[in-house]
Q: What sequence folds into this?
């Protein structure tokens, strides 16, 4: 489908031939969007509002046949290609200037096998959608901490989430993936088929083709878990981080979470003297039973004690939304990450200095503990290292 009489754009210095576009449209079941179409600006927008790029075509795919047609068209016309799943890439990999966006977001199929504890999902699925389906059976896998993140980009980049210390990275739970290569060939990849490609897909990013679906290993989680947030005054930062560091050394694998420095919102649960101030928070998620979690989390809940305690039994799907309010689409985003072998006293001092200097109420510093199940996978097993 394509609208008539709309400008085409100029990819790589030469205009697209109208005849080529129309021939592509004739074999494409989904919607093609071009500059000048009413939907163009909305469809080229991504999570990070700093990214402002203008593709010549946006191909909203309905299935694998559309993806193959789009890949072949891009190759034949010499187009730059961007692939969009959830559109959540902060650097803006989901959109390009002057080329074609192969948009997988309409591809929303999810199939759960509760007996085998596996799920296959198409590449347009978000983690919120995936969790909703798997939690019908009390199952989950390590997935993004923001529900509107797409499964595709997160999985291909290795994948981090609250369950990772218990069940490993997202890519550690990937059983197979379907891929359309640059030549337009459709391949099934797994540890038994096209093994080299499967190795690269697990952590190597979206550099090897267009992945159209993912099959995951699932685990028994929820549907009710213990989770939430504890808030402390910023003046307690150094003591809190030191306590948390030592506590996590002995904490069970089921405990996920992260210290966070943020500006306290003007919410009813926040004391008046903390509203609008930088505070030290702890986000927690316990993947075992809530009863076991109460005992495990007791030291964290008693330290200080916190001025705000929002930790309670809640659906796992709600735990997955805890940081959504800090990550709405449409803001200008700049993210930076660094791996640290340990949270030393010097690192704690440095974090305290810089967290105090945050000038934007939208700025957040998050410390994600790794190790445990992540470190039990050898560096050479897949294309993501640095597991120690």
A:
């Amino acid at each position: 489908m394509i609208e008539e009489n709309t400008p085409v754009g100029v990819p790589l210095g030469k205009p697209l031939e109208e005849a080529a576009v129309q021939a592509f449209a004739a074999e494409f079941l989904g919607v093609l969007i071009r500059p000048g179409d009413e939907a163009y600006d909305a469809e080229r927008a991504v999570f990070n509002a700093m990214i402002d790029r203008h593709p010549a075509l946006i191909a909203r795919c309905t299935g694998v046949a559309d993806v193959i047609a789009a890949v072949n068209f891009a190759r034949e016309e010499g187009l730059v290609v961007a692939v969009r799943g959830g559109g959540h890439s902060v650097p803006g990999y989901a959109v390009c200037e002057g080329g074609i966006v192969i948009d997988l977001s309409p591809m929303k199929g999810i199939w759960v096998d509760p007996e085998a504890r596996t799920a296959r999902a198409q590449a347009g699925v978000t983690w919120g959608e995936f969790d909703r389906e798997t939690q019908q059976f009390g199952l989950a896998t390590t997935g993004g901490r923001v529900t509107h993140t797409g499964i595709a980009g997160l999985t291909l980049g290795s994948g981090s989430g609250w369950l990772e210390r218990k069940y490993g990275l997202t890519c550690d739970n990937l059983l197979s993936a379907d891929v359309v290569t640059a030549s337009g060939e459709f391949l099934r990849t797994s540890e038994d088929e096209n093994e080299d490609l499967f190795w690269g897909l697990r952590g190597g990013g979206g550099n090897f083709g267009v992945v159209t679906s993912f099959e995951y290993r699932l685990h028994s989680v929820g549907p009710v878990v213990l989770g939430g947030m504890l808030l402390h005054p910023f003046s307690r930062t150094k003591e809190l981080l030191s306590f948390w560091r030592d506590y996590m050394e002995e904490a069970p694998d089921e405990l996920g979470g992260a210290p966070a420095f943020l500006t306290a919102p003007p919410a009813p649960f926040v004391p008046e003297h903390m509203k609008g101030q930088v505070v030290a928070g702890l986000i927690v998620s316990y993947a075992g039973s809530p009863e076991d979690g109460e005992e495990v989390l007791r030291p964290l809940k008693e330290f200080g004690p916190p001025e705000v305690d929002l930790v309670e039994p809640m659906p796992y799907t709600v735990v997955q939304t805890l940081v959504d309010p800090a990550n709405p689409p449409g803001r200008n985003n700049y993210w930076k990450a660094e791996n640290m072998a340990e949270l030393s006293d010097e690192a704690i001092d440095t974090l305290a200095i810089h967290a105090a200097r945050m000038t934007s109420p939208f700025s957040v510093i998050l410390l994600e503990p790794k190790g445990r199940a992540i470190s039990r996978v050898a560096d050479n097993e897949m294309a993501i290292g640095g597991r120690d």
